[in-house]
Amino acid sequence: MVLVAVACTATSRSASQASEQSAANRSADPVIEVSPADATASDDDPCAEMFSHFFVAVDSISYNGYEISRLHKTVRDKELGRDILMTYATLNSGGRTIATFGGVYDSLGDNTTGFGLASLLGSETKQLIISETVRRGRHWIVDISSDGATLFDSNDWDGGNEEVCVHDFDGDGVEEISLAITSFWGFWHMSMAESPLPSVVFKYEPNRRKYMPDKSAFLRGLTDIDEDVQTIDPDENPTEGRKGPYLATRLDILLRYVYAGRESDGWSFFDKTYNLKDKQDVKRDITRILDTEPVYRFVYGMRPMKRSAS
Questions:
Q1: Beta-strand (E) ranges in 21-148?
Q2: How many CA atoms lie within 13 A of 299 on its CB side?
Q3: Looking at CB atoms within 10 Å, which of 30, 121, 214, 252 has the fewest?
Q4: Cβ within 8 Å of residue 113, ≥6 positions away
C-alpha cells in the first residue's frame, strides 16, 4: 500500500547524528494510543466532502454580523518583471476589517480564493472556511458563530495542496479535516507525481480552540505495512530512469513509520533497503526536512520552530 494524501490529491547533518540527537531528546519513540473510536473509524471515503464543496459563487457573504469579501489586487513579480493579478479575502465586522486572508500566489498563474460556511463543530453552529490556492494552497477555519477566532491556519503546519478533506472519523458529530504534508514534493530523484504525501488528520480541541494534528490517526498508515515491506527488494539496482520510484517506495514506508511514532523502525527499514551510492546524502536531507517539519515536531514533542510573521 502506497501512502497517498487523502487531501485528494543551513548546515545539514547526517542521519546518524540525528539519531544520536533524538536519543538525547527522547529515550524512545513516543507511545501513540488509539482510542476505541479510532479503532472503529468509518471506512467511508474520507474525501467525499471537501472544502471546495462549500464555496459560494458570489464575492461577498454575511453571517452573524460578519461579512467576508473577495477582493483583487496586483502584485509585482520582480523576477519576471510583470504584474500578477491575485485575489484575497477580508473579514469585516462593525465596519472594520478584523482579518485578511491572502499571500498565496505563483508567478506561473493567478491564484484562486474560495470561501463558504460549514457546520464543522456540530449542526448548531457555522464556521467560515477559506482557501487560497495556486498549485499549493493555504486554508483557514474561522469561528464566526462567536468572536471570529481563527481555529485553523494550514500555514502553521506548512502543509496542504489545493484541497482539504472533511470527515467525521470518530463519529462524534464534530468534523475532522485532513490535508497533505508536502515537504517531500519533488525530493531528490522523485517527480512530483511520485512523491509520497503523508496525510495528516486535524481534530478540533475545544480547550485550545484549535484544530490540532491527531497523532493516533497516523497509525492507520501502518495498515498492511509489514506486507508492503516484504515487497521491497533490498538488492534492487534501478536504472537511472527508475531511481524516482525506487526512492518513492522506500521513503513512503519510512514516513509511515516516522509519523506513526516508530521512527527507529523506519530508519532501520530504510538502512536495509535503500542501497544507492547517494544513501548518506539522501538520509541527511530527509533528516534536515523532518527537523523543521511542524507535524513531525508535534508528534515527537518538540517545540515549534520560530516562524516569521505572515
A1: 49-50, 60-63, 66-77, 82-93, 96-101, 112-118, 127-134, 136-143
A2: 32
A3: 30
A4: 70, 87, 88, 89, 101, 102, 130, 131, 132
> Taking all residues of the chain, what is their mean pLDDT, rounded to a whole number?
84
Amino acid code (one letter) for 136: R
Query: What does the alpha-carbon distance between residue 255 and residue 179 come to, in Å, rounded to a whole number?
Result: 15
Span of 23-27, 81-85, 147-151, 231-235 with lowest mean pLDDT: 23-27
Report pLDDT for 227: 97
| pLDDT for residue 150 is more than 90 | yes
Type of residue found at 104: V
Residue pointed to by grid coordinates 473579514: 91
From the CA atom positions of the chain, what is the Rg in Å?
A: 21
Coil, helix or strand at residue 68: strand
One-letter identity of residue 95? G
Instruction: Report whether pLDDT(244) > 80.
Output: yes
Please report, for residues 42, 44, 68, 251, 254, the alpha-carbon distance to residue 171 in angstroms, rounded to integers and kept in the order given: 8, 12, 30, 32, 30
Beta strands 49-50 and 165-167 are antiparallel
- Bridge partners (DSSP) listed for residue 211: 204
Q: Region 282-290: what's the mean pLDDT? A: 97
Least confident piece of the model among 132-146, 171-185, 195-209: 132-146
